[in-house]
Amino acid sequence: MLLVFIGCISGAGQTFQTAGNWSTGSNWSTGSMPSGANIDVTVSANPTFSSTATIGAITDANSITYTINGSGSLTVGSSSLSKSMTFNSNGTINIALGGSLEIWGDLVVANNLTLNVVGSLIVHGNVTMGNGSSVTVEGTGTANVFGNLTGQQNTHVTTTLGGTLTVNGALSLGSGTSSISNVLGSIKAGSCTCGGCGALTNCTGNVILPVLLLYFKVSANVDKVDLHWATAMEINFDYFKLEKSTDGMHFLDFGRVRGSGNTTTRRDYSYEDDQPFDGLSFYRLTSIDFDGSEEKFDANVVPVRMNVPRKFEVFPNPVIDGKLSLKINFDSPPDAAVFIYNNLGVLLAKQEVHSSETSISIPTLDAGVYMARFSSNHFTQVVRFVVSKN
Fold it and tell me: At 26, is the secondary structure helix, strand, or coil?
């Protein structure tokens, strides 16, 4: 009898052994790059990421430096398969602007991790750092930890120049020279302790807001504007309020999108603004949770430029409560005004216009047909409206 045994090919024994690009097959012990959240590997040389890669658990040797370029991303595990990244001593991770590292398990470091984030870091489990480790998030960098971030003695957490660190669980650092420093950045944690910080923890009392926003993108699409965004986590979250502005300071609510309530998995959203402003405008998200608390994502205000026909609108039509709302789809010129006439052309009222949406009170008008004329040096339009009396 002939017995044939067929073995399963796995990631066991696959080692990144020559410094260079992760996707170069000759840098691997097997001569080809492994791929897949179920394939666990060992890293014994410094890898560089310039494209997208997905792998299982990673075990790193001493003194390994990861370089994730602006076009690179590394995902460890998946939403259905928790995998961790484990460093020995003296590890370094550099995530450049546009680059990303997402770990669906834990990030564990023996001692002396140096983590520099200018791009995006997401750890769905815990971050555990040994003595002498440091985390720096700067510029447009974002670091989101769903579990706890724990450091032993002489560990440091720093955000600078707009960088944000959000820890859903506890941020806890040990004694010695440990520090938590926030210089024009943001640190939010469920709780915060630091044995070496004294009273200057820089995050005491911060709480997790209902939404962790991954990105917010806005793009022009002929005569419409497409909005796309995603969240990494939502806690007791009700809905998004969509806002736009002609000057980046005064925003108008133009739409709402229901949230997912409570989730720790990624959620993607989209919306279409079919009445965009003409010229340069700005878009922003505001999150509203179930108790009415809100967070404005001012760090994610996105500009877009459109070339659409200018419009002047009045509503409601007919008017039934003596108040007429006025709306334009462009930045109001300094000389802009609206004039109200009866059907014989007699001027009844005048209202200066200082924003893209305003109102005018007309409680004394009898039932009938009237005209509203928007006028400025560069644009004039007349709209008829009806006043109805109950």
Answer: helix
